[in-house]
Specification:
Strand order of the largest sheet: 1-2
Radius of gyration: 13 Å
Helix content: 40-55%
Structural class: mainly alpha
Strand content: 5-15%
Largest sheet: 2 strands, antiparallel
CATH topology: Arc Repressor Mutant, subunit A
Number of helices: 5
Number of domains: 1
CATH class: Mainly Alpha
Order of helices and strands: HHHHHEE
Amino acid sequence: MFSYTDREELLKVLWAVPEAAAAAADIDTDEFLLLGARLGLTMRQMWVLVFLRQYHPTEWVSPTAVAREMWPGINRDSAWASPKLKALVAHELVDRHERGSYRLRAPVSLGDR
């Protein structure tokens, strides 16, 4: 099971440069990978987290949009992204809207930005 502290630290690493697009270069990669491993995240789940980082915390993104934008030119749909997003919800890293859209959760320390 994952710890609250690890989850919060991973979210802080992701939101460290909130104005930037989802460029992985803006993230402390070593810390991000270490915390992701501690939480038991797959690499694809971590890619989804980095992808969601480009959206403002008030923006909701559909699983279909996640799949299509992450893999342009490849016929991907919500069936690819939904399991990864649901796993991230279970880890309390991503929020799910009642209509089935998702957003990256902000760390508690940042509150609702």
